Amino acid sequence: MISVTRIFKAPVVILSLSALECLSLESIRTSGYNAWRAFKMRRKAMIVVTGGSGFVGKALITRLAQQGEPVRVLSASGKKAFAGLGQSVEVVQGNLYDAESLYRAMIGAHTVFHLASAQWWGKKRDLERIDIRGTQNVIAAGRSARIGRLVVLSHLGAASASAFTLLRVKGQVEEMVRTSGLAYTIFRSGIVFGQGDTFVNGIAQLLRANPFIFLQPAQGESLLHPLYIGDLIEALVRSMEHLDTVDQTLSIGGPEYMTFNEMVRTIMRVTKARRLIVPVPPWTLRAFANLLSRFFPYFPLTSQWLDLLAANRTAPMGALYDLFEMQPRRFEDTILTYMRGRPYRIELLRTLLRRRPRRIA
């Protein structure tokens, strides 16, 4: 793995910046002009984040602010949501559908982390509007602003021909980014878990919803590759200094594979919520989820949530170490630090009472 800081240790005599720019692609071992342009702009330049109010976005902005990096956030809610993060965080009020605010957010940016996504809440049209149309607008603004690199978060298993809506939309987004003409890095991650996630904590809430049983899609044999939020953020931050991640699609996960059934049993053990696991045909759960979403927009079980369990979704074991020399954290050891003793029944009630915003952005 070649990092920016290590390039200058290569056995090459460098007389000036202009001379460095004249080096062959082979001598600096980059992925082409896009990689060199992304590096040339780096030097503590502005970093832009979309989707800053989400689980991953909040964690990334907090980490960048702690490092003293200049961060600009595109947010429909304005500065209040990011108060207390320090003066290095600038907020541009706007959304993915306002070309003027998008351009203002991206002008002078070295790296744009495009994290805004409907994920598994909302209807199919929300996914198409936010993930597809939103990404189209981000790409257009990025071209106009001449950004250094676009970094996009996707899912393991994403494919434009997938039969499952969430994975198909993510696959379409990936294709748009690859053909955008911008320098890019696509991260395909496994299930991202942490103190504020909605997948693993959603399972804990569902376990508390019924004191006797837990409805599981089929036998729960789909293979997952959970990744701790802190490790994902570390990988995103380190990628800014690694030229050989430019114009690449990187598949990453944690240190272990586990089936969905194993994940549920681990969560039951940690939260001390013993339930009888009842296998249910996936189509039955999908119909049940669609019905519940009409009355409870933020119910943990959704059709898109089930998409993530529809097939095996794993990355090569050891990918994070090979890419960034990182040793990710194990699932059970990590959730033990924050899940035990949490009032998941109360959290479920709060989730059910949440109202869907008039417009998801």
Question: What features would you describe in this structure?
Answer:
This protein is of the alpha/beta class and 361 residues long. The protein has a domain at 4-192 and 227-254 and 312-328: 3-Layer(aba) Sandwich (Rossmann fold). The protein is built from 16 helices and 13 strands. The strands form four sheets. The protein has a seven-stranded parallel beta sheet, with helices on both faces. A two-stranded parallel ribbon has the order 7-10. The protein has a two-stranded parallel sheet with strand order 8-13. Strand 1 (46-50), helix 5 (55-66) and strand 2 (71-75) form a beta-alpha-beta unit. Helix 6 (99-106) crosses helix 7 (124-145) and helix 9 crosses helix 11 (260-271). The model is unreliable at 1-31 (pLDDT under 50). This is NAD(P)-binding domain-containing protein. One of its GO terms (molecular function) is protein-containing complex binding. Residues 51-191 form the NAD(P)-binding domain.
Quick overview:
This protein is α/β, with parallel strands linked by helices and 361 residues long. It has helices spanning 4-7, 17-21, 25-28, 33-40, 55-66, 99-106, 124-145, 165-178, 200-209, 229-239, 260-271, 282-295, 303-307, 319-324, 331-335, 344-353, and strands spanning 46-50, 71-75, 89-93, 109-114, 149-155, 184-189, 192-193, 213-217, 223-224, 227-228, 248-252, 258-259, 276-280.
